């Protein structure tokens, strides 16, 4: 088992106190509906730099304190009742974020040569739990030093109650820019989502995906660029799909086959979160911070027709669902719905547009970006592969279903075993 020793825990507060007039930030209707779970990503940085690990850790803490002055809600706490209303809000009280330092008794090069996927949660505060309570920090960071040999990793956990993947990525970029001395003038996030999507009187937190008590370790797949192009031409009788549409349709079908009797007789559904910022009329900029996405649903009912039509059939269903958001106004949009009885839902989230591999704190970009185990099943995360050669896919299925999924002949025809990070 991976040996990780926690060395220090401290609270990082904004370097400049948040003004009193910014003390309360209402959450939006979209925030209101989301359960309090976390977005977790870990970035690995190779050895070979001239600066010592202690200096790197100090610089990260200092720049984090500076960037929190602009992302001040992350240093606050979610409260369930506003002093003057029943709204859920963030009290921007500068209570701070959690910063943990830890030592990993493993050489980073050997770690990346054969990554222990099921133990990546150890590189996050609290073991990388997917869910948190309201009184916990909205942002937690763990700085992991690999020894001997040097190298380090940054596990960053942000509450989804406050931010979506786009906002998470924008924060990482702003932090890295600040660390490199490019923080001013840099991104100044706009906290306007509550004005765009006001809270509603009745909007309970919705369990939009199946949650399991045990942590699910993901399978990691690599779909290289040449395999992506082959996959996009697989359903020749239909319109050429985007790369994401083609990959989701493939993963979805293989997952359904792996479920076998579990999925038989149930309504099959793909849930895909879509960034609303560029799709709204008028469009929003990427610096609009918050949960500004819509969950679209594609029905898989009827997909089990002739084999040659299945891929294109599901690609078409996905395209129809996503294109329905184009030109939407703020008033047109609702939030996700809970998993209904008799529905087998699969979540596919694409992080391919997020520039995680450009997250340079001053010592170059990460050698690898990874996703830890989580409590959601039937969940798939798509990311750009290291070096830009295709996609890396993280698949979260139950152990029984994972066995059939990993052996699916069609999946094997379009994917490669990722193996060592250095082989990408």
TrEMBL record:
Transferase keyword on record: yes
Native source organism of the sequence: Acorus gramineus
An annotated Gene Ontology molecular function: acyltransferase activity
The protein's name in its UniProt record: BAHD acyltransferase
Similarity remark: Belongs to the plant acyltransferase family.
Any single Pfam family the record assigns to this protein: Transferase
Keyword line: Acyltransferase, Transferase
């Amino acid at each position: 088992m991976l040996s990780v020793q926690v060395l220090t825990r401290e609270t990082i507060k904004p370097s400049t106190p948040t003004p009193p007039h910014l003390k309360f930030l209402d959450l939006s209707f979209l925030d209101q509906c989301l359960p309090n779970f976390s977005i977790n990503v870990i970035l690995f940085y190779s050895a070979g730099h001239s600066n010592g690990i202690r200096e790197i850790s100090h610089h990260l803490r200092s720049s984090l304190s500076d960037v929190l002055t602009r992302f001040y809600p992350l240093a606050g706490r979610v409260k369930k009742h506003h002093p003057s209303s029943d709204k859920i809000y963030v009290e921007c009280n500068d209570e701070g974020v959690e910063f943990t330092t830890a030592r990993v008794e493993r050489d980073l090069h050997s770690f990346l040569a054969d990554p222990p996927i099921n133990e990546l949660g150890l590189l996050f505060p609290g073991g990388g739990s997917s869910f948190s309570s309201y009184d916990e920090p909205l942002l937690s960071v763990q700085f992991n030093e690999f020894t001997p040999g040097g190298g380090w990793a940054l596990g960053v956990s942000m509450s989804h109650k406050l931010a979506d993947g786009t906002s998470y990525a924008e924060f990482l970029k702003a932090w890295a820019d600040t660390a490199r001395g490019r923080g001013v003038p840099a991104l100044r996030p706009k906290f306007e989502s509550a004005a765009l999507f006001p809270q509603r009187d009745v909007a309970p937190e919705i369990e939009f995906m199946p949650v399991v008590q045990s942590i699910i370790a993901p399978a990691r797949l690599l779909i290289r660029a040449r395999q992506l192009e082959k996959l996009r031409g697989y359903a020749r009788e239909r319109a050429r799909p985007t790369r994401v549409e083609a990959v989701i349709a493939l993963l979805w079908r293989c997952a359904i086959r792996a479920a076998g009797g579990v999925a038989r007789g149930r309504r099959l559904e793909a849930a895909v979160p879509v960034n609303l910022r560029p799709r709204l009329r008028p469009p929003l900029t990427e610096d609009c911070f918050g949960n500004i996405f819509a969950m679209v649903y594609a029905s898989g009912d009827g997909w089990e027709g002739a084999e040659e039509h299945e891929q294109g059939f599901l690609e078409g269903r996905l395209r129809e669902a996503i294109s329905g958001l184009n030109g939407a106004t703020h008033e047109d949009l609702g939030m996700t719905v809970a998993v209904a009885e008799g529905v087998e839902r699969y979540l596919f989230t694409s992080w391919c547009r997020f520039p995680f591999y450009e997250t340079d704190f001053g010592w170059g970009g990460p050698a690898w970006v990874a996703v830890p185990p989580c409590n959601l099943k039937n969940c798939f995360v798509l990311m750009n592969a290291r070096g830009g050669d295709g996609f890396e896919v993280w698949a979260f299925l139950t152990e029984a279903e994972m066995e059939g999924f990993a052996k699916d002949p069609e999946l094997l025809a379009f994917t490669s075993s990722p193996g060592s990070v250095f082989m990408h």
